[in-house]
Amino acid sequence: MTNIISLSAAELAEQLRAGSLTSVEAVNAHLARIAAVDDAEHGVHAFLHLNAEEALAVAAEVDAIRAAGGAEAEALHPLAGVPIAIKDLIVTKGQPTTAGSKMLEGWVSPYDATVIEKIRAAKLPMLGKTNLDEFAQGSSTEHSAFGNTRNPWDLSRIPGGSGGGSAAAVAAFEAPLALGTDTGGSIRQPGAVTGTVGAKPTYGAVSRYGAIAMASSLDQIGPVARTVLDSALLQELIGGHDPKDSTSLPEAVPALADAAREGAAGDLSGVRVGVIEELGGEGYEEGVKARFDESLELLKARGAEIVTVSCPNFKYALAAYYLIMPSEMSSNLAKFDGVRYGNRVLPEDGNVTIERVMGATRAAGFGDEVKRRIILGTYALSAGYYDAYYGSAQKVRTLIQRDFAAAFEQADVLISPTAPTVAFELGAKLDDPLAMYLNDIATIPANLAGVPGISIPGGLSEGLPVGIQFLAPAHEDARMYRVAAALEDSLVKQWGHPLLSEAQDLEQAVAAAKEGKN
Amino acid sequence: MSTDALVDFNEALTRYEPALGFEVHVELNTKTKMFSDAPNEFGDEANTNVTPVDLGLPGTLPVVNGKAIEYSIKLGLALNCSIAESCRFARKNYFYPDNPKNFQTSQYDEPIAFDGWLDIELDSGRVIRVDIERAHMEEDAGKLTHLGGTSGRIQGASASLVDYNRAGVPLVEIVTRPILGVGADAPELGRKYVAAIRDIVKALDVSDARMERGNVRCDANVSLAPIGADKLGTRSETKNVNSLRSIERAVRYEIERHAAILDAGESVVQETRHWHEDTRTTSSGRPKSDADDYRYFPEPDLVPVVTSRERVEEIRATLPELPAARRARLSAEWGFSEEEFRDVVNAGLDSAIDETVTAGATPAAARKWWMGEISRLAKDTELEPTEQGITPADVVEIEALIAEKKINDKIGKQVLQLVAAGEGRPGEIVEAKGLAVVSDDGPLLAAIEEAMAGAPDVVEKIKAGKVQAIGALIGPVMKATRGQADAGRVRELVLEKLGVQG
Hints:
By secondary structure, chain A is α/β, with parallel strands linked by helices. Chain A has helices at 9-18, 23-37, 52-68, 70-74, 114-121, 164-171, 188-194, 228-238, 256-265, 286-301, 317-332, 354-365, 368-381, 387-410, 433-437, 444-449, 477-495, 506-517, and strands spanning 47-50, 84-87, 126-130, 177-181, 197-200, 221-225, 272-276, 305-309, 413-417, 453-461, 464-471. Chain A has an eleven-stranded mixed β-sheet with strand order 1-3-2-4-6-5-10-11-9-7-8. In chain A, helix 8 (228-238) packs antiparallel against helix 9 (256-265). The mean pLDDT of chain B is 91.
């Protein structure tokens, strides 16, 4: 038997179809890997909740359908039986959804998110729910109320955030696929620092119904995977119009997997790749810049034309983001008050009035980072400050959209490093929120403009992964997948193997960590 | 119990000029709620008409109800408003347990309808144009029931129950510009304005328009300024005044209260007031300043509502005849005097009369029956005239029976009572109870002869040419025939018998 967990989702799906492997075997192999490396104290700690029983039942159902053959087997989704992990910000019936917060500890949603309905309909066994910064607010997963996740490349380092759990699970071969959400880079930045692939689709390409909102105008659910093709396959599955989300796009899902295959097989003649002047240089580590430049050379070798584009307003993106995101978030998180669901905390002394219960619940239920941002957002929306803060930030947003429009006149896709640095040590930036926020400097513009972005592994710096980001115009996710798959193909050919095969022996590392600390 | 000092209404108006403003909330009668597909039903078991969206569960998103948009546009057009080509919803942020998301999704600075007006005719015939600033869409909150306190208020309650059935019910809030120069007509204008809105939404069939159920709710703003002043005074906002009579009383009360405060040289507190129907007074609610900070911002979960000009015209073409236009038409068609017509409208019987005329009666006859005997019966039964089981068709039938001389007016009234008592339709009742006027001359002649025999002096007078003396014979004839004789026929027969020319 091949090493099941090392298979990509596409390869796994192929073996399931061919009958050389069962879905139950696939699920069991991943559950065994999770048991070996996901220890909360010393291991990766990608999962907050395991859904083994249901995952095995779904896998057995797929296997039975395949074994019976006929029309039902024919009608199975190409990814049927391939296990998947779900970021714990996306609501699921029958499993807890915590959003990484004490506020929702123990809460089980009575309804499924639209993407979960699609995953259930396609019969992908859900392995469980993955860790995240509380309510997706953070860039390191250290703001989870249930303990941080560790980077499989180096357990003393951050896995990125907010979706560090989903990225680490995929990087640690605990799951071939995962779902993430990306508000300012929460899929792409963890992808970059864990050596995995993460895509933020065009805003509205995937329904947000059932993703616990952080900032409604920025949030987007997207795929987390180890290859560009797997990412495309998953985005095709979860994408499409949803009448329950009025911001979801009316158009049908484009042929993303075909675009990825085409990119991997063909050259890039006639494709103009724009290097964004403002996303590089100062603040970007030398190793990151070196890998980035090598990727440009590979793209050139594949026939692409490299042009330089300027997006002068990107320098205001972080500031605008830290007004718009907290503003929307402060309102979105107002509903967490202990009245209807989730934890309820009574005041320690004095009257038990509704206001005091709400206050005590929110004081105890939210962590510092969430509170910091609620205060920021509440302030920015206040009468007398609205125009100066929220209003100005919206203007910047328009300027950034114009920058993109101008850049896409000169280039078909844009390219930048995904994050300015490789994974940093756990705790290194916890006391410096501004330094933490800078992690997302290259990913935030895409959210502000609603354009799609993807991060793919671009090599190592000091033994840690560097991410390369591609951005495409809105609705042009297929173009983004094509170019990303082309670079991925060139890189893997150059390395001779996928980047993740250079990662440490994780089972050994976790065992050593347990040993050392016990 | 209120201890507010008051100044007599008429006296107050000698010194102060009132300014009014109304915010009327109309609950739309769409099948489903504003942002979810939960049923929009009144009176069901608590918390059954809810979806995850209405409970504000994590991850849920709103979707705008297209029917609610259409209804709002209809209402806007009926209020002579312009309709926005594109408008957005906003979030009004405040923490309160009847508000499941702790923000209300409401239109704010981009209402769907704006800059309209409504002409209100008062009893005196005076017409006042009320300028409508805007009509915007929003969602209703849930319903709180406070237990263990006094008078159902949250103060002093030991617990509160929340019913989210009403949360998310579509509302249109109609906001007037300040209404000035109405003077002593202020209370009546308040009542008539809200009645006009109620009649319009009923005619449009966009709301059940039942004020007792809160389908139409009014917040009345009142302020006083010294006569001749160029600035408005400080206003109070009396919330949720839910009957037409209460609006009139609340406006009057606030004018009397404000006047006393201003007379004493004090300042009116800008606040919300609660109306108490039992004591017919208002009491202080919460201070309300213009600085209340709801941190409005555009609702990012919803795309703008875009309405093409073609769509507006399409909707305009479906508008039914509106109450004011209908009244103008009926007034012209019926030929009543101004006073008669106003009485009919004030009695709320214009529709009944219209239907009766349509069913075949003359306007005069329809008015006579509805405003006369049917209204009189209604006073006894304490029902609305139209709710007694007497239909326009019944009135037409009675009129026909009279025209055929089968019954007379007096019997007609008797028949109406029996219709109201559920005895059947007029024709059936006349038949079953033997109420037909005696038209067979045989029994009538016998009664006449008996009457003449009993009054020879009268007979002599008639013979001598004093024809009007016949009246003295009609009484006994009526008595003998139990009122079923036709007085005109009696007269004819007497003259014929005595060979006298009438």
